[in-house]
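Hey, I was hoping to borrow your eyes for a little while. A protein chain has come my way and I'm curious about its shape. Take your time with it, there's no hurry, and the full record follows here:
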Amino acid sequence: MTYTIQQIADALGAKAVGDTTLRIAKLAEPANAHADDLALAMSPKYAQTLSDGAALAAMLWPDADWQGMGLKAAILPDRPRFAMSGLTRMMDPGQGFETGIHPSAIIDPAAQLADDVTVGPLTIVAAGAQIGAGSIIGPQCYIGTGASIGKNAYLRDHVSIGARVNIGDNFIAQPGARLGGDGFSFVTPEPSTVEETRKTLGDRGDTKAQQWARIHTLGSVTVGDDVECGMNVTVDSGTIRDTMIGDGTKLDNLVHLGHNVVVGKNCLLCGQVGVAGSVTIGDNVVLGGQVGVSDNIFIGDGVIAGGGTKIMSNAPAGRSMLGYPGTEMSKQIEGYKALRRLPRLIRDFAKLKADLAQSDRPKASDES
């Protein structure tokens, strides 16, 4: 599939200039672009390498001198970075999944599939499962008993959706995503060493090691519309009530949500974020890579936590956080700067101490 410069610009709501009849086959970096590629040079920094490639057209920035760059055509969006969203969607060749129901798929007679649903090879759809119109279920997936998936879902290979999980429209799951596993919930007959340690911050008293008893998971997972889960995301079901993910939230690769977690709308949880059980996260929260969240706390709307932050207590709305334990980002940076100054301060102090000792030493005339 190829598109003219004008067709691409119209789809993006952007301005097209030059020979807008030029046809584009794919996208490319400026230095590696061929004549039928659209080079992505959306800032002067990247435009410097246009001459290293053979592109005739490029997507640039609003006031770019495209003719001075030797191009025959250009697309000039108001916000190039945002235009990338529509452009990549338009040019995405997909994974090549065949439409329809593959003969090797196992679909229970009690499952309900709406119109235009694709089910890939070796996928299992259990009894009572419902899949909305236009959804694509890739190869070797599992859709559990009574699970519900809305319209236009896109599940890549090896995705697992547990029993009674309820998912809204436009859901995307990358390979290996798992929603609806049992929560990690265990208890001992008497108060455990862990409980006593949390209470006293160290003193275990006379508690003894005991065998762990499993608390079964009776809830499931509820997911809103326009949610995306990256590769190997794991979302535990709730113990009694459902674990919940709000509309528009995106989970990066290897994100884990424990049982009973509630995540609000339009949140971004980056790679390897771990959220312990019964945490409530507000709307528009961003957790950077490897952020860890302790159990039974809340994170307010609009909180941003930098990579590696460990949030161990409630985080007020709008706070920017960093560090371990996580505190206000500005205070953490101030602390880091102070730590870097410590060696010099110690040297200065040692010198000052030596100078004072020298000045306090009796002079030879005094001794006589």
In short: The chain has a mean pLDDT of 94. The CA atoms of residues 293 and 311 lie 5 Å apart. The chain is about 20% helix and 25% strand.
